[in-house]
Amino acid sequence: MIPTFNEAANIPELLSRISAAVPPGQEFSVLFVDDSTDNTPEAIEKEAVRLPIEVRVHHRADPVGGLGGAVMEGIALSVSPWIVVMDADLQHPPTLLPELIAKGEETGAELVIASRYTGGGDHSGLGTRYRVLVSGFSTSVAKALFPKVLRDVTDPMSGYFAIGRDVVSRAQGTGAVRPLGYKILLELIVRSRPRSVTEVAYDFGVRYAGESKSTVREGLRFLRHLLRLRTSGMPTRALAVGAIGLSGFLPNLAVLWALTHRTGLHYAAAEVMANQVGVLWNFVLIDRVLYRGRKHMGPRARLLSFIALANADLVARIPLMLLLVSGLGLTPLLATATAMTLVFALRFLCVDRFLYR
């Protein structure tokens, strides 16, 4: 399965090498999922006529999800037990195709990754020192955020891998795969949790023709994707919401100090106003960072609902605290901590399941 975007110049050489790499008699087909604005689909169809292997092209009029979306759409269109994903620029050597599948069948692994960083691998095809640093940094960040699931993976940023259909079906069945940008392997590992992973070393080659699609914008999308993956579980989102709430004390205190010391406003009125600033701070971080991409309401409705929940939090906390002290005999300190925990949990559930469901 090969996602393409304006790779017409690479198609003849790519298909020739793929055809030469496939052992005689092995069932094999090539599916291109194309988002191109040039003549890449025509180039594929022209070359397919002269080859002994089956070649198909699926052009997407609406390239939803970028390269990752193309990969998932291609996987859905394929029927083979093993799906190999590779790039069209020939930096991924087609000669490795049979070895990836053979390695999976021999070891029983559900995922076989072509790695630039395992023993015998080489990443010199990245070219510039900048790209080498970006690749190494991205790999380090991903492994730091997902130490357990990436424990045996040296190259989670690889775009060249073979994955069993059962693993993909498991990930698709959860409805959790939401590709963003070009690092689909990391999402598949995190979402589907393959039972066993193995790697094959390879030399990452130099692009055959055309220009790299890696940009600063794609890098930023990748970092945003990492955050989304890391906060995909409810416990982690709850911790993130709590941390954002704590950060809201900083603007709250700054505005409170300014209103009481600079304007002479009564502290009670100043606290009400300062609290709203803290609420707005929390809303911006939660709305724009933590729950980006999970919005079913308009921005005004989200903001008003969030403000209402935040202020209901304050109103509910005091009577609940009094009830815990007078009704259950808790100390004021313990009652306050219990009330804050219960109210926070209720507010988080409202935010997570209603506001950003």
TrEMBL record:
The chain crosses the membrane at residues 238-260, 272-291, 303-324, 330-350. Its main location: membrane. Pfam families: Glycos_transf_2, GtrA_DPMS_TM. It comes from the Bacteria. The keyword Glycosyltransferase applies. Keywords: Glycosyltransferase, Membrane, Transferase, Transmembrane, Transmembrane helix. It is found in: Membrane. It is a multi-pass membrane protein. Residues 2-160 form the Glycosyltransferase 2-like domain. Its EC number is 2.4.-.-. Residues 243-354 form the GtrA/DPMS transmembrane domain. SUPFAM superfamilies: Nucleotide-diphospho-sugar transferases. One of its GO terms (molecular function) is glycosyltransferase activity. Coiled coil: none annotated. Belongs to the glycosyltransferase 2 family. This is Glycosyltransferase. It comes from Streptomyces glycanivorans.
